[in-house]
Design a protein that fits this description.
By secondary structure, the protein is an alpha+beta fold. 50% of the residues lie in helices and 13% in strands. The protein has 5 helices and 3 strands; from the N terminus they run ββααααβα. α2 packs antiparallel against α3 and α3 runs antiparallel to α4. The protein is elongated. It starts with a strand and ends in a 32-residue tail after the last helix.
């Protein structure tokens, strides 16, 4: 089963515009990091990944360290694959979205159904409970005996 992070848009009570982000490794983010980041509208991150991969590859060729340049580019690709979904969540938070919670499901459709049912249950459960106030007549009187330590004794300075 996969875990989906449910992000809700700012200032809306409707649950229509929620976004489900699958928590896990992003294979397309690993294979083509700049394109995957641009597809998810992470423009700055896409530009940084493109520049980093290009710079590391060029630097490796100039210094006759093609293997090192390729390995460093591979590390950038691996980082985007591992942390790409986290970058998406961080970008949504910067835009004012808030995290509703997580939903565990096999597919996105199942996650949507579970989210709607859990959100409906949460809205029903959020009705304020009746407050039970104990009767003051049954309360124990305050003990005014000796106290050890740094306790405050009422009536004494």
């Amino acid at each position: 089963m996969a875990i989906y992070v449910v992000m809700e848009p700012p200032g809306r009570s409707e649950r229509v515009d929620t976004t489900f982000i699958r928590d896990g490794f992003a294979w397309l983010g690993f294979l083509v990091p700049p394109l995957w980041l641009a597809r998810h509208r992470l423009w700055v991150e896409a530009a940084l990944a493109f520049v980093a991969i290009g710079l590391l590859s060029t630097l490796g060729e100039r210094l006759d360290l093609e293997t090192a340049g390729s390995l460093l580019s591979f590390l950038v690709m691996l980082f985007v694959g591992l942390e790409g979904q986290g970058l998406r969540i961080a970008a949504l938070r910067r835009r004012g979205w808030h995290e509703w919670g997580v939903v565990e499901a096999d597919r996105l459709d199942d996650a949507d159904i579970r989210y709607v049912s859990e959100a409906a249950a949460d809205s029903d459960a959020q009705t304020p409970a009746q407050r039970i106030v104990p009767d003051a007549a049954h309360a124990r009187p305050a003990q005014m005996g000796l106290a050890l330590g740094l306790n405050h004794i009422p009536g004494k300075p």
